[in-house]
Amino acid sequence: MEKLIITAAICGAEVTKKHNINVPYTVEEIAKEAQLAYEAGASIIHLHVRNDDGTPTQDINRFKQCIDAIKERCKDVIIQPSTGGAVGMSNEERLQPIYLKPEMATLDCGTCNFGGDDIFVNTENTIKEFGQKMLKLGIKPELEVFDKGMIDMAIRLHNKGYIKAPMHYNFVLGVNGGISATARDLVFMAESIPKGSTFTVTGIGKNQFPMAALSIVMGGHVRVGFEDNVYISKGVLAKSNGELVDKVVKISRELGREIASPQEARKILGLKE
Ligand code: KMH
Ligand code: ZN
């Protein structure tokens, strides 16, 4: 089986130090968390950034500071900024990090309830606009899909030329408003993407490690990190994103699957090596 690509979603936009004191806010904290995840085996850093007080921002200068600091500590890691940002941000605000021309960025493929009264809005025109801009800048999108219909949207927009193949999907399972985190649902998602696509799996909250284990045996890839889950085991807060990545590395090796380096991840994803 192909080696396992581990993505570390180190920060997110919604989780705070109230959930886990180790959630990074400052440039220094973000760079340190990225380094711990990288040293543990992550080849991709999925990046949101914050102001020092913890409020989410998509400010291009803040992204640049964080990316520079991460690159200094993790020389060859793939950095994947979020274009999802936080619930309620405008498209212009969300798009800022793509102008730094990262290798990858997220492309959210539909609108989704996001718990409570929150709605994460991605209209068809938004997805087209983001897809087209990423194409133009040579950025590989990671297609964030919270439900099966979002896979269909991505395929439709691929057929219309907004998204290039081979496509790389992130199945986000277990959001309140998205598809559930069950084996049946994961298999359904994996069987719904075009041949030649790759996928990674994000299980929200307590679903993080069970979904990771399933993806490892199915030949998919794995995303873990504070953005999605702050616990290393039931009731025990993780000390760092590195600890979460390390647990995935151990599960994968136990199951006989080796971990991809960033260069190997580039090859698997069709990025420039
Ligand atoms: N924070 C969520 C509203 C992405 O990074 O592209 C959106 C999100 C998805 O995290
Ligand atoms: Zn994100």
TrEMBL record:
Keywords: Metal-binding, Transferase, Zinc. InterPro entries: Aldolase_TIM, BKACE. GO terms for molecular function: 3-keto-5-aminohexanoate cleavage activity; metal ion binding. It holds the Pfam family BKACE. It comes from the Bacteria. Its cofactor is Zn(2+). This is 3-keto-5-aminohexanoate cleavage enzyme.
